[in-house]
Amino acid sequence: PAWFWGWGSGSHTFQETLGCELHEDGTRRGFWKYSYDGRDFLILQPETLTWKAVHPAAGNLKNALEEEPREIKIKKAKTEGDCCDQLLSYLKFWQEKKAAFPLLNVTQKENREGKVTLRCCAYSFVPRDIKMTWLQNGHALSHSDHERGIIQPSGDGTYQTWVSIDVHSEESNYTCHVEHQGRNQTISVPLGPVPEASRKYWVLAALTFAGVIAIPFVVFFCGARYRERRQQQDGLPV
């Protein structure tokens, strides 16, 4: 009756809404509320198993509902239990349907310090979360030894990233380990002589640098010899 709800005469709308949230840290949150004419009326407080009246006319209903604590516990269990379980199953189904596991590629190149830089690249994966690390003899290397690229979009709805590490060429048994969507992938790196193309790059860089330094000296030497010959031809003292 209108006197119980504290409402006036005429037509009104009374709504009941429930839902739930799943957070990245694994916590769950459920909510249950009543609305009156499109405005919040009563909101369940699951922490205290009480109702919060957010409308001036909600007092009578609040008192009536709190006389049934068992019903409040049932509502809390539905939102934080059944609702979250169903939401989690939908989320897993969507992730499995949309998931694309990464394509892996490993390169090695000699660097300026005489070491070998190993780089493991992951391409075309969805969703974004991925874990990449280098192993030696099956054991994970320290994170401080890794250099990591940012996870960035590839432009086609997938993502890409990389992780690298510097090692001595005489060491071996390195493996790039990737974990994505609960699935593990590894790719081994048989270290050997650094590819000739990589060595040529550094030789070419060294020759280019030496050439840049040598050119001014050659020009200076040729200019000095030219002036000396002209002075001899003109009978001037050298």
From TrEMBL:
<dbReference type="InterPro" id="IPR013783">
    <property type="entry name" value="Ig-like_fold"/>
</dbReference>
<dbReference type="InterPro" id="IPR011161">
    <property type="entry name" value="MHC_I-like_Ag-recog"/>
</dbReference>
<dbReference type="GO" id="GO:0000139">
    <property type="term" value="C:Golgi membrane"/>
</dbReference>
<protein>
    <recommendedName>
        <fullName>Ig-like domain-containing protein</fullName>
    </recommendedName>
</protein>
<dbReference type="InterPro" id="IPR003597">
    <property type="entry name" value="Ig_C1-set"/>
</dbReference>
<dbReference type="Pfam" id="PF07654">
    <property type="entry name" value="C1-set"/>
</dbReference>
<dbReference type="InterPro" id="IPR037055">
    <property type="entry name" value="MHC_I-like_Ag-recog_sf"/>
</dbReference>
<keyword id="KW-0472">Membrane</keyword>
<dbReference type="GO" id="GO:0009897">
    <property type="term" value="C:external side of plasma membrane"/>
</dbReference>
<keyword id="KW-0391">Immunity</keyword>
<feature type="transmembrane region" description="Helical">
    <location>
        <begin position="201"/>
        <end position="222"/>
    </location>
</feature>
<dbReference type="GO" id="GO:0002474">
    <property type="term" value="P:antigen processing and presentation of peptide antigen via MHC class I"/>
</dbReference>
<dbReference type="InterPro" id="IPR011162">
    <property type="entry name" value="MHC_I/II-like_Ag-recog"/>
</dbReference>
<dbReference type="InterPro" id="IPR003006">
    <property type="entry name" value="Ig/MHC_CS"/>
</dbReference>
<feature type="domain" description="Ig-like">
    <location>
        <begin position="102"/>
        <end position="188"/>
    </location>
</feature>
<dbReference type="InterPro" id="IPR050208">
    <property type="entry name" value="MHC_class-I_related"/>
</dbReference>
<dbReference type="InterPro" id="IPR007110">
    <property type="entry name" value="Ig-like_dom"/>
</dbReference>
<keyword id="KW-0325">Glycoprotein</keyword>
<comment type="similarity">
    <text>Belongs to the MHC class I family.</text>
</comment>
<keyword id="KW-1015">Disulfide bond</keyword>
<keyword id="KW-1133">Transmembrane helix</keyword>
<keyword id="KW-0490">MHC I</keyword>
<dbReference type="InterPro" id="IPR036179">
    <property type="entry name" value="Ig-like_dom_sf"/>
</dbReference>
<dbReference type="GO" id="GO:0031902">
    <property type="term" value="C:late endosome membrane"/>
</dbReference>
<dbReference type="Pfam" id="PF00129">
    <property type="entry name" value="MHC_I"/>
</dbReference>
<dbReference type="GO" id="GO:0005615">
    <property type="term" value="C:extracellular space"/>
</dbReference>
<dbReference type="GO" id="GO:0006955">
    <property type="term" value="P:immune response"/>
</dbReference>
<dbReference type="InterPro" id="IPR001039">
    <property type="entry name" value="MHC_I_a_a1/a2"/>
</dbReference>
<keyword id="KW-0812">Transmembrane</keyword>
<keyword id="KW-0732">Signal</keyword>
<dbReference type="GO" id="GO:0042612">
    <property type="term" value="C:MHC class I protein complex"/>
</dbReference>
<dbReference type="GO" id="GO:0031901">
    <property type="term" value="C:early endosome membrane"/>
</dbReference>
